Batch of 3 targets.
Target 1
Amino acid sequence: MQRLLTGYVVNYNRRHRRFGHLFQNRYKSILCQEDPYLLELLRYIHLNPLRARLVSGYKALGRHLYCGHGVILGGRKNDWQDVEYVQRLFGDKERAARRRYNEFVRAGIEQGRRSDLTGGGLLRSQGGWAAVKALRRSGEYQKGDERILGDGDFVDEVLSQAEEHFEKRYRLEAEGYDLDALIERVGEIVGMSPEEIVEKGKERRKVETRSILCYWATDRLGTSQGELAKRLKLTQPAVSQAVRRGKDLVKSRSYSLFHD
């Protein structure tokens, strides 16, 4: 989201000869717990144009250009929008799934604006102030974070994983790792020289090794896929595929960057 917003704002400001913020951080992405929050959030977002009176009624919502609702119903098409994932949440048969989805969204109209889906942190996680105060009266406390939509256990799990990921990245930096050092370390693990790894090639061993490098470079060093594409003479889509392949290889072979 940050990259998308920055690119749009820079282009917009250049065209209109202006400076400064445009959206004031209005658009952002959050991590959402699939059950039970995803469907509620999906419905709430798709009803936004109706609440804002950008469309004349619920039927017109399906034709609204800047809403994915009509695409899920099959009335419009966006090549980039994954509708199957949402439809599967409502059933295996497409027609029945669309009908159930339509009924579900329509039923949310009367709910209006929901603070539990627009607030921050614990409020978002627990369903508004009433739910939070009820929990505290009973002596129950749960963790909340404005970047995450889910219950306390889900928030805790996500933050723990993020902390573990940060600690691994910090350790690499503390040990002086950069991309060159990472290439050497990958070479040690698989028995290849850095020169062999960097050179292009379609041999299975080389493809797998470069995939492992791409995964660790993006995951542990924060190296951009663009930088890896230049270094390894690949396209960015190829790097993206390599990252996914490398992740599976590291897991299946129990590879570790560290010597201990």
Target 2
Amino acid sequence: MNNASGVRVRPSIESLQVEYRKGNKKPLEDLMRAWKGIKALPPDDPNSFFMIGGFHGEPFRGAGWGSASYWGGYCNHGNVLFPTWHRAYLLRLEQALQSIPGCEQVMLPFWDETSEESLTKGIPWALTDPDFELDGEKIPNPLASFTFNRAITDNINGDDPNYSKPLPYVTVRYPLSGLVGTDKDRAATEKHNARFKDAKENVVLLNRNIVDWLTSYIVVKGNVVPTNVKRKFEQCLDAPNYTVFSNTTSAAQWNENLPEGAIPVVPLESPHNKIHLAVGGFDVPHGPNKGDFSPIPGANGDMGENDTAGLDPIFYFHHCFIDRVFWLWQKRHGFTQHLDVIAEYPGTNSVDAQGPTPGTVPNSWLTLSSPLDPFKKSENGKERAYTSLDCINIEEQLGYTYGPGSLEDLPKLSLAATTVPAGNSSKVVRVSGLNRAPIAGSFLVSAYVNVDGERHLLGTEAVLSRWSVQYCANCQTHLEVKAFFPLDQFSVSAVEGAQYDVEIHTREGVRLQTQPASPPVSQAVAGAAPQAAPKLFRLEVR
């Protein structure tokens, strides 16, 4: 489908569902046909889903698979190339879909994650139904999972190859586990998954979790405070520049330097991470109605880890929404023709957050001219790597745009709205000094406020990580996690005399709880009661 200007349109998957139910089945059927086609291609075919899905993380075809200097995959996280690398990635996947005969007009849809349907029902049924009728035949839904057509051996993690995937591995989502790389992993996964045999009930649990993540809130002394992912997506659209909008590392430094009374910025990567973990294996720590939403120990879905996320089809519908939010931010701030990177700022070095990708020199500065390997384009008869400069204007440079969806009509913040309203608290709960190297896999950092004997979740920062980060030599000095939880939604009186604490929710279901900390400054001590453990991170309220 093209718009009035002749630019091809990426619609929402929800709109394709509506058309399908109305009787216009071809758009959704063609999408299913294209996905079925690329998944059936031999794994060495450049258009196969196995090949393209593996660019994000495993099976680590670049320099990283055999060198401790690299993290292993091509994807960029925690740096300024995060939005543009994934933009080029989606384009490559879309080109593969269009290579399937009869699917030349197929465009990659976005899952509209902040639409009313997602807020009330969760993931669109086209991404979760187990079967789909195509050409009069019921087939396994190509968008619900991926059955590997080649085994993967984890060469990164030494004697503990958690991410190895023997045939016939099928990707899984919350509440299931997909860790099968070792005998110990397989035994734990079989025991865990035996508790979740009902596929339909698993989708119900998954959707309930997604809705909780998207809509959670707390009420403290009459203050209704949103703590949800929808709010984070809205807030990221007001990030003041591309550098801090683009990634968590740059935003953390920006927030560290803010003057008192300024509201911390939210980068695009923050809500992006939360959806990864919601689909891949984490509950909201405490839900909007104070129910028991503690993590399910052993839930290790593929979307929850950088190494495996790109091999679940839902990854691309999620990232299509992320790319759409990126485009909305560009239009909102007048950056459709150019982007600016703050030179040599945190988040602009190849070792920041994750370590360098294949083709990038360790400890080099990232710019808009940095290569977005492994994605190539032809220029003057020669092939070269895409750069961010090739991916700024999606309509003029890449030939696509986005159809209608949520977040389009949000009012732009005034300058006054970037500071704390009069009468509200200007304090921020700050977590720093947390080293993610010894933490196995992705995890959550959750902050709580204790008021009048009641404990309320202030917010959760999702850290999308890997099972064994310590194997990347160039990552070791760049693994500090910072998180900021502003109190600007609370009146000064509501949090007067309050105490604060922080929990780390790991993949293993372990909760590392701080000792309560009183403003303005306190040192957090993490451990399992009643025994105190070594200091794990700093907790400040100022």
Target 3
Amino acid sequence: MSIQQHELAAMIRQKFNTGEAKLPLLPEAVIKVQRIVKDESKGAADIAKAIGDDPTFSTTVMRLCNSAQFNPRGHEIRSLQIAVQRLGVRKVLQLMIALSAKVHINVKNKELQDLLRRSAEHSLMVACAAQHLAKLIGSADPDEAFLAGMVHDIGILAVVSAAEKELSEIDPESRLDAICNLHREMGGRLLSYWNMPDVFATVASHHGIESDDRPNERLIDYVDAADFLIQRDGHHVMFDAISEDIEVSNFPPISRLGATEIHIAAVEVELEDSIKGMRQAIG
């Protein structure tokens, strides 16, 4: 990092540590559902009512519950309460948190706004690929793999929210370098701040890096393998770029998962349709 980037990184960390960082707040509907989940006397009907008060989330939850990814048999679900029961209380909450990033894309700086849009699109691609891999390989819950993909780059939002003004004042290359160097650390912090399960904060903090202190967590491998396949398919990424010279079988996360060429081919065949379906579901 340059001196300028070091100073910016130090400033952002200080803001986080002192509570001065303007972290994205969860929408009121998500906060309501969090409270209900913690109350053992309440259940799916209470959560459905809380979601129903928010048109955006109620529509999105219904679309997701009727999507091929979460409803492969295609039985139409018309009730929010049944949707919550089908997906599961905690999974609905986690999906709402993962989708909350879309609420915060409205920043003033056009370049940062575009960066967040592209980041959200990339995360959706990774989520779909990770979910397909998990279904095929079977060593992780496919829906958890989807959620991990959705939030793995949430640190980009955290950094932009904490330092929009400062990032707007530096050149584009330095800006991207600064975000790249901080997005893992700040992603883990943001997800902890949002009370997401520790495993998702671990994915955000450690994805995209092979290191001695990399946790032995399958979901990180699913996210990194999905990221690799997305790039192999020709999609440009802003961060965590992987060398084009690496063979599929030699990519460590894919090796650890035991993914075969058959698995890879199956994911690549279905990926575009999956992404299209999820775009329609999420809006």
